[in-house]
Amino acid sequence: MSTTMRIKKGDLVQVLAGKDRGKRGRILKVLASKKGGAPRFIVEGVNLIKRHTKPNPGKNIKGGVVQREASLHASNVQLVCPECGAKTRIGHKVLSDGRKVRVCRKCEGVVDK
Ligand SMILES: [Zn+2]
Protein backbone atom coordinates (compact mmCIF):
# COMPACT_ATOMS: atom_id res chain seq x y z
CA MET A 1 0.00 0.00 0.00
CA SER A 2 1.24 3.45 -0.88
CA THR A 3 2.09 5.73 2.01
CA THR A 4 0.65 8.67 0.13
CA MET A 5 -2.81 7.17 0.52
CA ARG A 6 -2.88 8.31 4.12
CA ILE A 7 -3.01 11.97 3.21
CA LYS A 8 -6.20 13.69 4.29
CA LYS A 9 -8.04 16.89 3.60
CA GLY A 10 -6.36 19.85 5.31
CA ASP A 11 -2.87 18.30 5.28
CA LEU A 12 0.08 20.37 4.12
CA VAL A 13 1.85 18.69 1.22
CA GLN A 14 4.77 19.33 -1.11
CA VAL A 15 4.60 18.69 -4.83
CA LEU A 16 7.23 16.24 -6.11
CA ALA A 17 6.78 16.49 -9.86
CA GLY A 18 5.51 18.68 -12.64
CA LYS A 19 5.62 22.43 -13.20
CA ASP A 20 4.87 23.16 -9.54
CA ARG A 21 7.55 20.87 -8.15
CA GLY A 22 8.64 22.07 -4.71
CA LYS A 23 5.50 24.09 -4.05
CA ARG A 24 3.55 23.54 -0.87
CA GLY A 25 -0.13 23.82 -0.17
CA ARG A 26 -3.06 22.44 1.77
CA ILE A 27 -5.18 19.59 0.52
CA LEU A 28 -8.55 21.06 -0.44
CA LYS A 29 -10.12 17.87 -1.65
CA VAL A 30 -9.38 14.17 -1.91
CA LEU A 31 -10.72 12.52 -5.05
CA ALA A 32 -11.09 8.80 -4.37
CA SER A 33 -10.21 6.51 -7.23
CA LYS A 34 -12.91 4.17 -8.44
CA LYS A 35 -10.84 1.05 -8.85
CA GLY A 36 -9.22 1.18 -5.42
CA GLY A 37 -6.03 2.73 -6.74
CA ALA A 38 -4.29 5.83 -5.45
CA PRO A 39 -6.48 8.90 -5.02
CA ARG A 40 -5.93 12.30 -6.60
CA PHE A 41 -5.70 15.53 -4.66
CA ILE A 42 -6.71 19.11 -5.20
CA VAL A 43 -3.98 21.24 -3.56
CA GLU A 44 -4.55 24.90 -2.77
CA GLY A 45 -2.77 27.19 -5.24
CA VAL A 46 -0.99 24.31 -6.99
CA ASN A 47 -1.29 23.00 -10.55
CA LEU A 48 -3.45 25.93 -11.63
CA ILE A 49 -5.11 25.66 -14.99
CA LYS A 50 -6.86 28.38 -16.91
CA ARG A 51 -10.41 27.82 -17.93
CA HIS A 52 -12.18 29.97 -20.43
CA THR A 53 -15.79 30.50 -19.51
CA LYS A 54 -18.54 32.07 -21.51
CA PRO A 55 -20.62 34.81 -19.95
CA ASN A 56 -23.99 33.63 -18.71
CA PRO A 57 -26.02 36.55 -17.34
CA GLY A 58 -28.82 34.19 -16.28
CA LYS A 59 -26.49 32.50 -13.79
CA ASN A 60 -24.61 35.72 -12.99
CA ILE A 61 -21.42 34.40 -14.59
CA LYS A 62 -19.23 37.08 -16.10
CA GLY A 63 -17.08 34.92 -18.33
CA GLY A 64 -13.41 35.28 -19.12
CA VAL A 65 -10.41 33.35 -17.91
CA VAL A 66 -10.73 31.69 -14.54
CA GLN A 67 -7.91 29.96 -12.73
CA ARG A 68 -8.58 26.85 -10.73
CA GLU A 69 -6.65 23.94 -9.32
CA ALA A 70 -6.34 20.72 -11.29
CA SER A 71 -5.92 17.46 -9.42
CA LEU A 72 -2.55 15.85 -8.73
CA HIS A 73 -1.91 12.13 -8.55
CA ALA A 74 -1.14 10.80 -5.07
CA SER A 75 2.35 9.73 -6.14
CA ASN A 76 3.23 13.34 -6.97
CA VAL A 77 2.69 14.77 -3.51
CA GLN A 78 4.24 14.06 -0.13
CA LEU A 79 3.12 15.09 3.33
CA VAL A 80 4.94 17.96 5.05
CA CYS A 81 5.44 17.23 8.74
CA PRO A 82 3.92 19.95 10.97
CA GLU A 83 6.61 19.27 13.59
CA CYS A 84 9.89 19.32 11.66
CA GLY A 85 8.71 20.97 8.41
CA ALA A 86 10.30 18.36 6.16
CA LYS A 87 8.51 16.33 3.55
CA THR A 88 8.21 12.87 4.94
CA ARG A 89 6.71 9.43 4.79
CA ILE A 90 3.87 8.67 7.14
CA GLY A 91 4.01 6.08 9.88
CA HIS A 92 1.41 4.97 12.38
CA LYS A 93 1.47 4.85 16.13
CA VAL A 94 -1.02 3.97 18.85
CA LEU A 95 -1.00 6.45 21.72
CA SER A 96 -1.34 5.48 25.38
CA ASP A 97 -4.99 6.50 25.27
CA GLY A 98 -5.60 4.05 22.42
CA ARG A 99 -5.80 6.66 19.69
CA LYS A 100 -4.24 5.69 16.37
CA VAL A 101 -2.37 8.61 14.88
CA ARG A 102 -0.14 9.32 11.91
CA VAL A 103 3.47 10.11 12.73
CA CYS A 104 6.41 11.59 10.85
CA ARG A 105 9.01 8.96 9.91
CA LYS A 106 11.76 11.53 10.30
CA CYS A 107 11.14 13.13 13.70
CA GLU A 108 8.49 10.76 15.09
CA GLY A 109 6.29 13.82 15.63
CA VAL A 110 2.53 13.28 15.69
CA VAL A 111 0.87 14.59 12.53
CA ASP A 112 -2.72 14.29 13.83
CA LYS A 113 -3.44 16.64 16.68
ZN1 LIG B 1 8.74 15.48 11.38
Description of the structure:
This protein is mostly beta strands and 113 residues long. Helix content is 0%, strand content 38%. It has strands at 12-15, 24-31, 40-43, 48-53, 64-69, 72-73, 77-79, 90-94, 100-104. The strands form three sheets. The chain has a five-stranded antiparallel β-sheet with strand order 6-3-2-1-7, with no helix packed on it. Strands 4-5 form a two-stranded antiparallel ribbon. A two-stranded antiparallel ribbon has the order 8-9. The model has no long low-confidence stretch (mean pLDDT 90). The chain binds zinc ion. Zinc ion is lined by residues 81, 83-84, 86, 88, 104, 106-107, 109.
